[in-house]
């Protein structure tokens, strides 16, 4: 396999940054001055501009060859209507003049603002407000429609409001919000089930179709709360948030005694179909939305779900830096696979403040990235080989996303070098004249004719923010699972300005300000973090105390996880928890 070209390397300044991070961790949120991270301004600007080029190469090709259809086919310079793709609908049923939902444009709006192109953002807003309609006989996937279309519109609306004074063509008049509300209303029939768990598919014009499948995934019905919660708060119509929250509560009530959830379920019976689960496909954003809903809305209810769920993941799925899958009922490992989607987890852990664990896993993902040049969709850890069929890389953002979070938390320029490798690979393997193409098979680097919209909403956005985070200054955002920023507002938040939720949750504002690992660190390991001294190992959220303070136990389930090694403790014959078995 060819190696991608590498950008010039700077003199490493990583040690300085690591020392500062340790100092910052040791002092909790106490001030720790961060001088320049040693990466170099010119190099940073070079990489920033490189990402700009990538974004516009993808965006302009989409606008030329695919707009107003949904996504670009970069090899044939044609288009695909992703409503059909997202929903597998029968194209013949669509109206003759059906033009798609301009999905990639909707998905690009927030990125255009992050990149500082308000003129193009405004052009997009105006076009969408005059042309976009959801009154089409199209069956779409609720989850995808929510994170891509609804999330893109809501985020675009909030940004249009915030940047209103900088827009040129007249006043913004909430057009994107009206579109979002129109779409949200069309989602509501999906929630009309005995359990409150929504159908996975909805016809935008006619609601739930006859004989619609009743099977859905955990992420499909457990990651709607950010967009639908925001929609309710913006419109004053509580139905959206109520529907998403009811579904989330129901899902959480279905957890096992180990606080694990499965991967697929039936929305009519509320019974699990697939008991094996992990942190990747079908589940991933369920965890993400619990913690992000807590950050955005401040309700303890989200934290009270997230915390045990997170600890259960660390206890039952984690194996050193890897996360395997396990049966939700027994915690027994089922599949030993690395998946590309799992690469968001270190980003989530960084948001949470579990930087040590995040860094460890991120490095392993990077090793796999280096080995193949990109991340394969699935890699069999037990056989040390690619999955026989899932060998593709569809330009996914998750690894870049985690790299961005880790750099924000640590200011360690090593992550900027990782970004260089990602950018190098994307340009070398996937850039074609007509845009950026997905990789069909990472062992041959054969390409596939598809540029997914998330390449613009997430992959390019996180890579840009890695080198230029000026968008984050003076504002706190939480990014949806599709990379759309939602501002954290005190009017939406139950706790701000309470002292334990500092305002700067997602960003390091500039180099003269202290590193803030995360406001949530203190909730994961309340005392141990602040007791750490410089140079000692970092506490990790994998720490789970034994059930009884005496460390007595009846079974292994009464034992927790060692904080430093993250090894699971077991119950001895004499009835004490300890590291008796070197199982991990
Ligand atoms: C995105 O659509 C979202 O991040 C989703 O949650 C899962 N991953 C894809 C991109 O890989």
From TrEMBL:
GO biological process, one term: endoplasmic reticulum mannose trimming
InterPro entries attached to this UniProt entry: EDEM1/2/3, Glyco_hydro_47
Cleaved signal peptide residues: 1-32
Lineage: superkingdom: Eukaryota
Keyword Transport belongs to the record: no
UniProt GO MF annotations: calcium ion binding; mannosyl-oligosaccharide 1,2-alpha-mannosidase activity
GO cellular component, one term: endoplasmic reticulum quality control compartment
Record's keyword terms, sorted: Calcium, Metal-binding, Signal
Annotated binding of Ca(2+), by residue: 481
Cofactor(s) needed for function: Ca(2+)
Protein name per its UniProtKB record: Alpha-1,2-Mannosidase
Residues the record marks as active site: 144, 284, 377, 398
